[in-house]
Write a structure and sequence with these properties.
Blueprint (H helix, E strand, L loop, with lengths): L25 H11 L4 E8 L2 E12 L4 E2 L6 E2 L5 H13 L9 H4 L8 H6 L29 H7 L18 H14 L3 H13 L21 E4 L2 E4 L9 H4 L2 E2 L1 H12 L3 E3 L2 E2 L3 H8 L3 E3 L14 E3 L4 E5 L2 E10 L2 E8 L4 E7 L4 H16 L6 H14 L21 E5 L3 E8 L2 E6 L6 E8 L2 E6 L8 E7 L5 E8 L15 E5 L4
Length: 511
Amino acid sequence: MRRLLPVALCCLSACLGRAQGMPADLDSYILRAMKTFEVPGLSISVVKDGKVLLSKGYGKADLKAGTAVSAATRFGIASNTKLFTATALALLVDEGKIAWEDKVQKHLPGFALSDPYISSELTVRDLLCHRSGLSLGAGDLLFWPETDFTADELVARLRFVPIKGRFRYGFAYDNVLYVVAGQLIEAVTKQKWGEFVEKRILAPVGMTRSSSSYGGAKPSGDIAATYAQVDGKLTRVAPFTKSLVGAAGGIMSCSDDMGKWMMTQLARGRVSAQKQLFSPAQSRELWSSAVIMPSRSDPGGVADSSFNTYALGIGVQEYRGQWHLFHTGGLPGYTSLVSMYPNQNLGISVLTNAEAGSAWMAIERHIADSFLGAKGADWIETFKHAESVGSSQVTPPAKVAGTKPSLELAGYVGTFRDAWYGDVIVKQKGSGLGISFSRTPSLVGELVHWHYNTFWVKWTDRTIRGDALMTFEFDSRGQVTGAKMVPFDSNVDFSFDYQDLVLKKTKSTGK
C-alpha cells in the first residue's frame, strides 16, 4: 500500500573493506534529514551481532501536543507487516499443517481469481511474492481509502478483478493476496490472522508494545500522530484504522520491538538459546528469491544494484556487494523501513510519522555505509536532488482548450457498476456534477469538465491526494453507456487502481 514499493535483490556476498561501526555524527545526521524532508517524528533501531546498538526516538510524536518520540512510541509499519504474515505461514509449514507448494484452493476451496487456470494453480508461495498476474495495486480500492467491505467480501470479489499480466512471469506489487494469506491462516488454524500473529509471533519474540491492528491502537497511549504533505504543506491526516488488510499492512510497532524482530530474523528464527520460533530451513525459504524485478538504479548512480528480486514478504537485493534484505511500508502519515545485512548480522529499522521515504533512505544508507567501511555520498543531498527532479516531472495530462461536453450535464447522471468494486454514482450537484463511491465514504467529490467527455474527479477531502480523470463512453445513439477512470497524474498512489474499473451504466436517475 502506498507508493513506497520494496526494492529487492539477491547476490553472493562480498566484503567491502573493513567493517566499521555506528557513524559518529548519527544524531546530527538524523536531525538534518528530518529537517530537510519535514519529518515530525522518527524512531530508529540498529542491531548487530545479536545486540541492540541503538533504539531511540527523535522529534515529535504529536506536533500539537508537543509529545516527544521515544523508543516505545508506536507507528504503523504498513507493508513491513508482510514478513510477519510470511513468517506465520512458515510456522505452519514447520508444523506440517501446510506446504509452500500447496494449492490455495486446498485450504480455501471457494477462492478464485478471474482466470480459472491461475485460480487452480496458485500456491501458498505465490500469495506472497507478487507474481500472480494481477497488476500493480489491483483490487486496492476494495479497502483503500477505508471501505465498508469485509475481508470475506474482498476475497470473494477478487474473481472479478481483471488480470492483465502473465502468471509467474513478472513482478507487480499487490496487497490483496496477502489478505487471502490471512484468510488461509484462519482456515488452517481457526484463529484470526491478528490473534495468531500476536500469540505465535509477537509474544514469543517479546514485542510487548506491538499490536496486529491499527484499529486496536487508536490515539491513546504512546501513539505517533500521522502527517503528510498536502498541497505543499505538512498537514495532519487521518490514520488508517481498518483491520481488513491486517495481513498486508496492519501491525503497529516501535523501535524497541523492531530491534527484537530483526534479531530473530537475522538469527534464522532463534529467539534465545532455549527458543526457536521457526526453523533455519524456513528462514531460507523466506529469503529465497521468487521473482525477478528490473535492476535498480541508485539516485546519482552512487551504489547501483546489479539485480533485484522479491522473496516471501521481503525484498532481496545487493548493496555495495553485500547481501541485503529490504522492505518499505507506507500508509497515511506513516512510513517505515526494515533493512538487514545477514552476512554482517546487521539490522536497521526506521519508523516515521510522515510520508517521507527519502528521510529514512538517507539515514539507512548513512548507517550501512559506516558499517561497511564505504565512503558514501551525502545521502541527504542525493535524495533531496532526486525528489526535486521527480517532482518537476509530475504534471497533469494535457488539456485540450475550447472543448465542451457532448451532452447536457443531466445526460451523464446515473449509477455506474463495476463487477469487483460495485457502484459509482454520478449526480447533479447544483449547476454541476457530483460523484461518490458507494462503498467508500470518503470518496465524495465533484466532476469538473476537463475536455470533450472527460471530467476531473476532484475529491472534497483534499488529504486523499488521489484525484482521477473520468471519461464517459457512448452508444450509437449518443447515450452514455459506461465510463473509464485513470489516476489524474503520476503522483497519485498506485493503490488508487482506477484503471482496473470497468464501469457500466445501470441507471439514469441520480438527481
